Amino acid sequence: MPSRTPIPWSYSSLDKFVTCPAQFHAIKVVKTAADTTGAAGEYGHYVHKAFENRLRHGTPLPSDLVQHEDKLVELSKLPGEKFYERRIAINRKLAPSEFFGRTVWSRGVIDFLAVRGERAWVVDYKTGKRIPNNKQLKLCALYVFYNHTAVQQVEGSYYMTMGGLKQPAPVTFLRNQIPELWATFTPDLKQYVEAFKTDIWQERPSGLCRGWCPVTHCAHWEKKV
Fold first, then answer.
1. pLDDT tens digits, residue range 42-53?
2. How far is residue 151's CA from residue 178's CA, in Å, rounded to a whole number?
3. How far apart are CA 155 and CA 1, in angstroms?
4. How far apart are alpha carbons 25 and 8 in whole angstroms?
Protein backbone atom coordinates (compact mmCIF):
# COMPACT_ATOMS: atom_id res chain seq x y z
CA MET A 1 0.00 0.00 0.00
CA PRO A 2 1.35 3.47 -0.80
CA SER A 3 2.11 5.87 2.03
CA ARG A 4 -0.65 8.49 2.00
CA THR A 5 0.94 10.68 4.65
CA PRO A 6 3.97 12.69 3.50
CA ILE A 7 7.01 12.23 5.69
CA PRO A 8 8.54 15.32 7.33
CA TRP A 9 10.70 17.30 4.96
CA SER A 10 13.79 19.45 5.25
CA TYR A 11 15.41 21.79 2.76
CA SER A 12 17.80 19.06 1.58
CA SER A 13 15.15 16.33 1.34
CA LEU A 14 12.74 18.57 -0.60
CA ASP A 15 15.62 19.48 -2.92
CA LYS A 16 16.32 15.77 -3.38
CA PHE A 17 12.65 15.19 -4.25
CA VAL A 18 12.67 18.03 -6.80
CA THR A 19 15.86 16.69 -8.40
CA CYS A 20 14.38 13.21 -8.80
CA PRO A 21 11.20 11.96 -7.11
CA ALA A 22 12.15 8.33 -7.85
CA GLN A 23 15.50 8.69 -6.11
CA PHE A 24 13.84 10.38 -3.13
CA HIS A 25 11.28 7.57 -2.90
CA ALA A 26 13.95 4.86 -2.96
CA ILE A 27 16.18 6.55 -0.37
CA LYS A 28 13.72 8.25 1.98
CA VAL A 29 10.42 6.38 1.71
CA VAL A 30 10.87 2.68 0.90
CA LYS A 31 14.61 2.75 1.70
CA THR A 32 15.67 0.34 -1.02
CA ALA A 33 18.78 2.46 -1.60
CA ALA A 34 21.14 4.28 0.74
CA ASP A 35 22.47 7.77 0.25
CA THR A 36 26.24 7.98 0.60
CA THR A 37 27.90 10.92 2.32
CA GLY A 38 31.13 10.86 0.33
CA ALA A 39 34.31 12.83 1.01
CA ALA A 40 32.62 16.21 0.50
CA GLY A 41 29.90 15.37 3.02
CA GLU A 42 32.40 14.11 5.57
CA TYR A 43 34.46 17.30 5.22
CA GLY A 44 31.32 19.39 5.67
CA HIS A 45 30.52 17.56 8.90
CA TYR A 46 34.12 18.08 10.07
CA VAL A 47 33.96 21.84 9.48
CA HIS A 48 30.53 22.24 11.08
CA LYS A 49 31.59 20.30 14.18
CA ALA A 50 34.81 22.29 14.53
CA PHE A 51 32.92 25.58 14.27
CA GLU A 52 30.34 24.40 16.80
CA ASN A 53 33.02 23.33 19.28
CA ARG A 54 34.81 26.66 18.91
CA LEU A 55 31.66 28.72 19.49
CA ARG A 56 29.97 26.53 22.08
CA HIS A 57 32.95 25.32 24.12
CA GLY A 58 35.83 27.61 23.15
CA THR A 59 37.75 24.68 21.67
CA PRO A 60 40.57 25.96 19.43
CA LEU A 61 40.06 25.38 15.72
CA PRO A 62 42.13 22.64 14.06
CA SER A 63 45.24 23.96 12.31
CA ASP A 64 43.67 23.61 8.86
CA LEU A 65 40.72 25.83 9.87
CA VAL A 66 42.41 28.62 11.85
CA GLN A 67 41.79 31.05 8.97
CA HIS A 68 38.14 31.12 10.06
CA GLU A 69 38.87 32.35 13.59
CA ASP A 70 38.07 35.99 12.80
CA LYS A 71 34.67 35.05 11.39
CA LEU A 72 33.77 32.97 14.44
CA VAL A 73 34.86 35.79 16.75
CA GLU A 74 32.59 38.10 14.73
CA LEU A 75 29.67 35.72 15.22
CA SER A 76 30.37 35.36 18.93
CA LYS A 77 30.07 39.14 19.32
CA LEU A 78 26.58 39.34 17.86
CA PRO A 79 24.03 40.37 20.50
CA GLY A 80 21.40 38.15 22.06
CA GLU A 81 21.00 34.46 22.82
CA LYS A 82 23.19 32.20 20.67
CA PHE A 83 22.30 28.79 19.25
CA TYR A 84 24.75 26.44 17.52
CA GLU A 85 23.60 23.69 15.16
CA ARG A 86 20.07 24.50 16.33
CA ARG A 87 17.54 21.75 15.60
CA ILE A 88 14.31 23.53 14.76
CA ALA A 89 10.93 22.34 13.46
CA ILE A 90 7.32 23.23 12.77
CA ASN A 91 4.12 21.21 12.52
CA ARG A 92 1.36 21.35 9.90
CA LYS A 93 -0.30 24.21 11.75
CA LEU A 94 2.97 26.15 11.45
CA ALA A 95 3.54 26.05 15.19
CA PRO A 96 6.82 25.02 16.89
CA SER A 97 7.32 21.28 17.04
CA GLU A 98 9.72 18.85 18.64
CA PHE A 99 12.36 17.90 16.10
CA PHE A 100 11.24 14.25 16.04
CA GLY A 101 7.75 14.92 17.35
CA ARG A 102 4.71 12.99 16.17
CA THR A 103 3.22 16.02 14.40
CA VAL A 104 6.41 17.46 12.88
CA TRP A 105 5.96 18.65 9.26
CA SER A 106 9.24 20.37 8.44
CA ARG A 107 12.55 20.48 10.25
CA GLY A 108 16.08 21.71 9.76
CA VAL A 109 19.34 22.56 11.48
CA ILE A 110 20.47 26.19 11.62
CA ASP A 111 24.26 26.33 11.84
CA PHE A 112 24.34 29.60 13.78
CA LEU A 113 21.46 31.61 15.21
CA ALA A 114 21.46 34.71 17.41
CA VAL A 115 18.19 36.16 18.72
CA ARG A 116 17.74 39.49 20.44
CA GLY A 117 14.27 40.91 20.83
CA GLU A 118 12.77 41.65 17.41
CA ARG A 119 15.98 40.81 15.51
CA ALA A 120 17.69 37.55 14.64
CA TRP A 121 20.79 36.56 12.69
CA VAL A 122 21.10 33.26 10.79
CA VAL A 123 24.35 32.00 9.29
CA ASP A 124 24.67 28.87 7.17
CA TYR A 125 28.17 27.47 6.63
CA LYS A 126 28.92 26.26 3.09
CA THR A 127 31.92 24.02 2.40
CA GLY A 128 31.49 23.77 -1.37
CA LYS A 129 32.49 26.09 -4.18
CA ARG A 130 29.02 26.78 -5.58
CA ILE A 131 27.39 30.02 -4.43
CA PRO A 132 23.84 29.06 -3.36
CA ASN A 133 20.66 31.03 -3.92
CA ASN A 134 18.69 32.42 -0.98
CA LYS A 135 16.11 29.64 -0.87
CA GLN A 136 17.61 27.85 2.12
CA LEU A 137 17.93 31.10 4.03
CA LYS A 138 14.25 31.78 3.38
CA LEU A 139 13.30 28.48 5.00
CA CYS A 140 15.58 29.22 7.96
CA ALA A 141 13.85 32.59 8.36
CA LEU A 142 10.45 30.87 8.39
CA TYR A 143 11.63 28.46 11.09
CA VAL A 144 12.81 31.42 13.17
CA PHE A 145 9.60 33.43 12.75
CA TYR A 146 7.46 30.49 13.92
CA ASN A 147 9.73 29.44 16.80
CA HIS A 148 10.61 32.95 18.03
CA THR A 149 7.38 34.87 17.78
CA ALA A 150 8.84 38.20 18.94
CA VAL A 151 11.27 38.31 16.01
CA GLN A 152 10.24 40.71 13.27
CA GLN A 153 13.44 40.71 11.20
CA VAL A 154 15.90 37.96 10.28
CA GLU A 155 19.24 38.72 8.67
CA GLY A 156 20.40 35.61 6.83
CA SER A 157 23.79 34.96 5.29
CA TYR A 158 25.97 32.20 3.95
CA TYR A 159 29.58 31.82 5.03
CA MET A 160 31.64 30.26 2.25
CA THR A 161 34.50 28.37 3.92
CA MET A 162 36.52 27.60 0.79
CA GLY A 163 39.34 30.07 0.22
CA GLY A 164 39.17 32.63 -2.57
CA LEU A 165 35.38 32.78 -2.73
CA LYS A 166 33.50 36.06 -2.47
CA GLN A 167 31.11 36.06 0.47
CA PRO A 168 27.45 36.56 -0.58
CA ALA A 169 25.78 39.66 0.80
CA PRO A 170 23.40 39.16 3.75
CA VAL A 171 19.67 39.16 3.02
CA THR A 172 17.02 40.61 5.34
CA PHE A 173 13.62 38.96 5.77
CA LEU A 174 10.67 40.58 7.52
CA ARG A 175 7.79 38.88 9.32
CA ASN A 176 5.23 40.47 7.00
CA GLN A 177 6.97 38.64 4.11
CA ILE A 178 5.99 35.20 5.43
CA PRO A 179 3.42 34.55 2.64
CA GLU A 180 6.00 35.59 0.05
CA LEU A 181 8.62 33.29 1.59
CA TRP A 182 6.23 30.34 1.56
CA ALA A 183 5.44 31.02 -2.11
CA THR A 184 9.00 29.93 -2.87
CA PHE A 185 8.22 26.41 -1.63
CA THR A 186 4.52 26.00 -2.42
CA PRO A 187 4.84 24.58 -5.98
CA ASP A 188 7.40 21.96 -4.88
CA LEU A 189 5.39 21.06 -1.77
CA LYS A 190 2.23 20.54 -3.84
CA GLN A 191 4.11 18.04 -6.01
CA TYR A 192 5.59 16.46 -2.88
CA VAL A 193 2.19 15.87 -1.28
CA GLU A 194 0.72 14.67 -4.59
CA ALA A 195 3.46 12.05 -5.00
CA PHE A 196 2.56 10.50 -1.65
CA LYS A 197 -1.15 10.66 -2.47
CA THR A 198 -0.83 8.96 -5.88
CA ASP A 199 2.29 6.87 -5.21
CA ILE A 200 3.70 8.11 -8.52
CA TRP A 201 7.42 8.92 -8.39
CA GLN A 202 8.84 10.33 -11.58
CA GLU A 203 12.29 9.25 -12.75
CA ARG A 204 13.83 12.62 -13.53
CA PRO A 205 17.22 12.57 -15.30
CA SER A 206 20.07 14.79 -14.12
CA GLY A 207 23.84 14.78 -13.91
CA LEU A 208 23.58 12.41 -10.95
CA CYS A 209 22.48 9.64 -13.30
CA ARG A 210 26.04 9.24 -14.58
CA GLY A 211 27.07 6.83 -11.84
CA TRP A 212 26.47 9.13 -8.87
CA CYS A 213 22.95 7.97 -7.99
CA PRO A 214 22.59 4.93 -5.68
CA VAL A 215 19.31 3.93 -7.39
CA THR A 216 20.86 1.71 -10.05
CA HIS A 217 17.62 0.14 -11.33
CA CYS A 218 16.44 3.44 -12.84
CA ALA A 219 16.20 3.60 -16.65
CA HIS A 220 18.39 6.73 -16.67
CA TRP A 221 21.24 5.28 -14.58
CA GLU A 222 24.64 4.94 -16.24
CA LYS A 223 27.96 3.58 -15.06
CA LYS A 224 30.44 6.16 -13.88
CA VAL A 225 33.09 6.71 -16.55
1. 999 999 999 999
2. 12
3. 44
4. 13
